């Protein structure tokens, strides 16, 4: 952990060398963090044996090249703070990755030869900014970036200079490039609501619009993918016309739509099969994912056999093999290949030993003020009666906790804590109304659902009411600080990573796409609806904070900037509140495994000390 020389000295948490007295237990939990993991590979469209994936095999998440024909792997990037993601060019000759500074997310796309060599700016004339989408064709590249001035989308043909085809002060992004590279679908929020974007399709040659779709207030559209067949102008679109994420196919050649009728009770996402005859559909419900094949001609839906748990990324190879990432709370992640003959094997095994399994998650549906709240929970094996409990609050807020592998959850359980996840109003996967229920009243709404689940956990004998920890990162860190001020009677300690702490200052300093998101969420800017921002700001409620609080934050974070966190810490210090601070040299979270591990040690040790718990064996 790195302290900052740019600010007065804040209290730092006491971090032990080991969390457990038993060396085997200590080695087991650390092994879950340090075990190598890999992402689902992305392959070159015209050279599918050339693939790109991410891995933490060196202790930092970096980009790797995989030549499947030779079965050779090469680390592409080697940067102190890691690299977030990459893509292969259509011909497989180059690898693209986003070059920012110390995790600040502001930079340019660069490319280097697949077989190795120097990286150089990928698109001449593309300005530095926050990434707003990338589409790679044979001749055409579409790239987007955003700055404080708004969004810019451009194309580059045959390696030429970037030519701007769209610019606006509101949020926008690259969506999809047609296979013949004549059409470009973009998402935009010209109507002022980036949470529910519209779609415009423009001609690549001159940037002129050829089609527009906007479903109106509260109903967003997502341009997913053009059919991967030359001359096919069908665009796969995500919509929410019936209050959940569903699918339609928009044929630009005839300007007609066909809604995809799939009778499953959750949210849907999809991509085309290589011949565009079918869709690979991911169905998400109650924190778990299933995969299906949907035949576009017949409407037949075929289940693809995957184990219960969560799927993180899936795509179809030219031979029909579905490559996907899978994990559950009990079993670590695996990149797998489901072949047309039904065999399912591990595709890409990370080097080294596999991490030890953990415990499974159970489900609870708790009556809340806005309807049933879905919670996922587990307790340490062999325990009965109330135990110390950590409420791990997810970020987003448009995200959800799922039945997936988490070394962080696993070590809290090993340390003797029950763990409760709350998919509060604002979470994805439970329909549009649930996701949008926080609009105009963010923070307060989510905490009502957290309170309902807290009451359930105490009343059922799971949680010790005197030993409840509120913990989260990003939006979860924000809700942690807000909860400590608005629900002080419930929480014995709080641990907040990269939080919004002073909403007014956060809005001033954050990246423009986040400002656009906030305007959509609050119904305006702080100048327009100041009371909503003040009501939602943890700084407003700092006088009521009683529990010790640990804050962890990156110095280069463009999403939850450091100044507004310092403002909150100053307020705690002025009031004599107990707190500690961990600063690190990165952005919105760290890609360095050792840093993540150290943050987890700090959180558990801080909570244990605040609760007066002994070091477990």
From TrEMBL:
Residues making up the signal peptide according to the UniProt record: none
Record organism: Actinomycetospora straminea
TM spans (from-to): none
Keywords: Hydrolase
Keyword Hydrolase attributed: yes
Gene3D superfamilies the UniProt entry points to: alpha/beta hydrolase (3.40.50.1820), TolB, C-terminal domain (2.120.10.30)
Peptidase S9 prolyl oligopeptidase catalytic domain location: 410-597
Protein name: Prolyl oligopeptidase family serine peptidase
Keyword Hydrolase on entry: yes
Region of interest called Disordered, as start-end residue ranges on this chain: 75-94
């Amino acid at each position: 952990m790195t302290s900052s020389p740019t600010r007065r000295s804040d209290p730092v948490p006491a971090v032990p060398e080991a969390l457990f007295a038993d060396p085997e237990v200590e080695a087991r939990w650390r092994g879950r963090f340090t075990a190598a993991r890999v992402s689902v590979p992305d392959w070159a469209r015209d050279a599918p044996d050339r693939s790109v994936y991410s891995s933490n095999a060196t202790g930092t998440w970096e980009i790797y090249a995989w030549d499947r024909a030779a079965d050779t792997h090469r680390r592409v990037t080697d940067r102190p703070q890691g690299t977030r993601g990459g893509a292969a060019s259509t011909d497989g000759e180059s690898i693209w990755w986003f070059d920012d500074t110390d995790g600040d997310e502001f930079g340019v796309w660069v490319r280097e030869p697949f077989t190795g060599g120097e990286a150089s700016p990928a698109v001449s004339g593309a300005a530095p900014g926050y990434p707003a989408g990338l589409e790679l064709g044979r001749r055409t590249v579409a790239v987007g970036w955003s700055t404080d001035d708004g969004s810019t989308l451009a194309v580059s043909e045959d390696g030429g200079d970037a030519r701007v085809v769209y610019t606006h002060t509101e949020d926008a992004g690259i969506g999809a490039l047609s296979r013949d590279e004549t059409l470009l679908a973009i998402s935009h929020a010209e109507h002022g609501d980036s949470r529910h974007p519209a779609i415009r399709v423009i001609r690549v040659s001159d940037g002129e619009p050829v089609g527009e779709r906007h479903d109106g207030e509260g109903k967003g559209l997502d341009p997913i993918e053009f059919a991967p067949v030359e001359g096919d102008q069908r665009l796969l679109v995500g919509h929410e016309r019936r209050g959940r994420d569903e699918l339609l196919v928009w044929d630009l050649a005839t300007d007609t739509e066909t809604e995809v009728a799939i009778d499953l009770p959750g949210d849907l996402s999809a991509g085309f099969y290589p011949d565009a005859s079918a869709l690979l559909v991911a169905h998400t419900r109650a924190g778990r994912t299933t995969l299906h094949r949907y035949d576009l001609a017949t409407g037949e839906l075929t289940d693809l056999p995957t184990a219960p748990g969560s799927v993180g990324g899936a795509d179809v190879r030219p031979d029909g093999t579905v490559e996907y990432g899978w994990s559950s709370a009990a079993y670590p992640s695996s990149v797998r290949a489901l072949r047309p003959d039904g065999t399912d094997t591990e595709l890409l095994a990370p080097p080294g030993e596999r991490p030890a399994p953990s415990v499974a998650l159970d489900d609870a549906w708790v009556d809340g003020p806005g309807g049933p709240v879905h919670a996922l929970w587990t307790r340490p094996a062999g325990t009965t009666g109330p135990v110390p409990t950590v409420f791990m609050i997810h970020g987003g807020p448009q995200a959800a906790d799922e039945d997936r592998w988490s070394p962080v959850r696993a070590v809290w359980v090993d340390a003797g804590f029950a763990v409760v996840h709350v998919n509060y109003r604002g979470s994805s996967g439970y329909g549009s109304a649930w996701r949008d229920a926080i609009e105009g009243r963010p923070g307060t709404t989510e905490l009502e659902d957290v309170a309902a689940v807290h009451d359930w956990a105490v009343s059922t004998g799971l949680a010790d009411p005197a030993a409840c920890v509120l913990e989260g990162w990003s939006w979860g860190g924000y809700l942690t600080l807000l909860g400590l001020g608005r629900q002080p009677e419930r929480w014995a300690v709080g641990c907040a990573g990269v939080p919004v702490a002073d909403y007014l200052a956060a809005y001033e300093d954050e990246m423009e796409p986040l400002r656009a998101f906030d305007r959509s969420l609050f119904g305006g800017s702080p100048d327009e609806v100041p009371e909503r921002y003040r009501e939602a700001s943890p700084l407003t409620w700092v006088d009521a904070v009683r529990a010790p609080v640990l804050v962890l934050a990156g110095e280069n974070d463009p999403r939850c900037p450091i100044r507004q966190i310092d403002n909150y810490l100053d307020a705690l210090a002025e009031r004599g509140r107990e707190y500690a601070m961990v600063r690190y040299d990165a952005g919105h979270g760290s890609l360095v495994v050792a840093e993540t591990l150290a943050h987890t040690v700090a959180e558990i040790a801080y909570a244990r000390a605040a609760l007066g718990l002994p070091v477990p064996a």
